[in-house]
Amino acid sequence: MITEKQRYVWNEKALDLEPKLIRYAKSPIYVGNIIISEQAFFKYKFVRETKIGSSEKFNFENYKELFLDFGEHLVGDFQFDVELVGENVGGPLRLKIIFGEIPDELIEDIEAYSGSLSRAWFQDEIVTLEYLPQTVKFSRRFAFQYVKIILEAKSFDYDIEIKNIKCNCTTSASANVDQYVLKILDNELRDIDEVSLRTLRNTMQSTFIDGPKRDKRLWLGDFPLLAKTNYLTFNNIDLVKRCFYLFASQLKNDGRMPACIYTNPKINPGKEYIVDFAVMFGSSLLEYGGATDDWEMVEELWPVAFLQAQIIIEKIDESGLFNNSNDWWVFVDWNPQLQKDAAINAIIIYALNKLSIIAGRFKYSKEKKILDHTVKMMQKAALDNFYDFKNEIFLSGSEKQISWVSQVWMILAEVVDSTTAQKILLKMLKRKDTVKPVTPYIYHYTLEALFNHGLNTEAIQIIKEYWGGMIEKGATTFWEIYKSDDPKFSPYDNYLLNSYCHSWSCTPSYFFRKYKIE
């Protein structure tokens, strides 16, 4: 039983570990324009016309719309100075400022937006000034590379000059990612490493956040991927500990772990519960112990991790399969075609296996026995229900779907031996009828499976094609979703609200270091 007192202690520890953010300023590098382009992955392209310095001044006799490119994705607050050109401000000045992670966000009509998420997530602001000069500074934290400043209205008797435009960036990692880039990598992989590190840097704030443009909160599924990349790069261990304590302190009344945590204006759990995220909490703890040798904290949070497993074990039926009778959210991936039966059972097996390793370390024999028994039963059920022995492939759902996620998770769950796993993975990569994932989240676990079974060449090729593909499309941070054949795919019914700096996409930097890629 986890008491209220214990949760309070963990909450206090999380508060004590809140980082002091590193702050640094960045100014725009280019003035230009945005055009429709057949070469653009989405629809629009930023055309860089003039390189500028931080002291550049923009007289709005010459501009009605000013398009700026900061050269890379940034996270922080935004400010600029507005000077009076003339004697007096005869009437108020009205400016509109639009921020974009991609050029399309500055051009598309967001007032016509009809997606499933709030229109308020769009990064656009109106400023009305009744006297000049003034410094305009927004309290909202933005995530962007591109900015559009529009002169919407002013009286005829004066003009304005805008200067000292800058983003006051924040991170709990490092302002300079260049010093962390692996110089031994080839040029293509070095570029991928740099963009991966920038993605991680921009999502390391007072916690690890999923996306700095949208959601802006700590998510349980993204967290393990950021943590493991952080161990081998920026190595901010206190931030990892803070996130563990946040999740442990905010359990629901029935013990289930929330899928996300809010920290502003106060710590508060999200309403969502996601099966595959919660059951993996123990595997994240195991990785933390291995990376830091801080087994004391792993033991401290063991009851939380085991409780997440117990909640799921109660849903395993007599045949050894997960019975989602509560209709809990099973995520796996954003591909709407995905049949998730095989994957969720494999994820549970994987998670219980990792938790059993912790139980063995601390000699929790009773708990280890429960975990090992459940794993053995579920592994047998997985072979009986999902494996096509004739074709050596895993199937899922009533349609016997063949997908990457089914193969990858069954292999990570050690349902088949290593020789068979390698055959399945190679077959999966060659087949044209397999359902592929649409997120870097599952591409990460695909790489885990490939590297685990000695398929390093195939893994590196995927990194170059998938993450390198985003860079070819203009990415300076990696995206939440990437379908090379469907640029505007979005689970939110509008691609403009996809996150174009998303935490779960940063892990190439992890693989380069873990497997000593050159």
Task: Give a short overview.
With 518 residues, the protein is of the alpha+beta class.
Can you describe what's shown?
By secondary structure, the chain is an alpha+beta fold. The protein folds into three domains: 1-21 and 173-272 and 437-518, Glycosyltransferase, CATH 1.50.10.10; 24-171, Sandwich (Jelly Rolls), CATH 2.60.120; 275-330 and 336-433, Alpha/alpha barrel (Glycosyltransferase). It is built from 15 helices and 15 strands. The protein has helices at residues 4-16, 104-107, 187-203, 223-231, 237-249, 275-279, 281-292, 295-313, 341-361, 365-386, 404-412, 418-430, 440-452, 456-472, 508-514; strands spanning 22-26, 30-36, 44-51, 57-59, 65-85, 93-100, 124-129, 134-137, 142-153, 159-171, 218-219, 260-262, 268-269, 387-388, 393-394. The strands form three sheets. Strands 1, 2, 3, 4, 5, 6, 7, 8, 9 and 10 form a ten-stranded antiparallel sheet that branches. Strands 11-12-13 form a three-stranded antiparallel sheet, covered by helices on one side. A two-stranded antiparallel sheet has the order 14-15. Strand 2 (30-36) and strand 3 (44-51) form a beta hairpin. Helix 1 runs antiparallel to helix 5. The longest helix is centred in the last third of the chain and has 22 residues, at 365-386. The protein starts with a helix and ends with a helix. The model has no long low-confidence stretch (mean pLDDT 97).
